[in-house]
């Protein structure tokens, strides 16, 4: 089965947290949902999002039922995680 990769932003995800519950309940085995977090809403001139504080999107995803949610904090870690995920047949 071919992997499907979704690229999302922190602002978008925060405005639609229900999508995490839907993903958790549907449990698509081939979905990789990548969220880029710049801690602000770019569409509103950089107003800070909740992730600029203590809000942890990976923890929210795990709480919704996505057990394999992870946070990476460097380009190198992101590259390793993405390549491993694609090669594992997600």
Structure description:
By secondary structure, the protein is of the alpha+beta class. It has one domain. The protein is built from four helices and four strands; from the N terminus they run E-H-H-E-E-E-H-H. Strand 3 and strand 4 form a beta hairpin. The mean pLDDT is 94.
List keywords for this structure.
about 90 residues; alpha+beta; two-stranded parallel ribbon; about 40% helix
Model regions low in confidence, pLDDT < 50 over at least 5 residues: none
Compute the number of strand runs.
4
Measured distance between first and last alpha carbons? 8 Å
Q: What is the helix fraction of residues, given as a range?
A: 25-40%
Shape: globular
Rg (C-alpha, Å): 13 Å
User: Roughly what is the average pLDDT, rounded to an integer?
Assistant: 94
Proportion of residues in β-strands: 15-25%
Strand order of the largest sheet: 1-2
Number of domains: 1
Question: What structural class is derived from the secondary structure elements?
Answer: alpha+beta
| Order of secondary-structure elements | EHHEEEHH
Number of helices: 4
| Major β-sheet profile | 2 strands, parallel
Give a short synopsis of this structure.
Helix content is 39%, strand content 18%. The chain has helices spanning 10-14, 18-26, 57-64, 75-87; strands at 4-9, 31-36, 40-41, 47-48. The model has no long low-confidence stretch (mean pLDDT 94).
């Amino acid at each position: 089965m071919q992997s499907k990769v979704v690229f999302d932003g922190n602002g978008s995800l925060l405005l639609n947290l229900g999508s995490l519950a839907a993903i958790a309940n549907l449990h698509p085995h081939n979905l990789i949902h990548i969220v880029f977090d710049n801690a602000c809403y770019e569409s509103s001139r950089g107003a800070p999002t909740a992730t600029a504080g203590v809000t942890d999107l990976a923890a929210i995803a795990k709480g919704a039922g996505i057990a394999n949610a992870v946070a990476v904090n460097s380009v190198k870690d992101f590259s390793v995680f993405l390549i491993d995920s694609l090669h594992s047949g997600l």
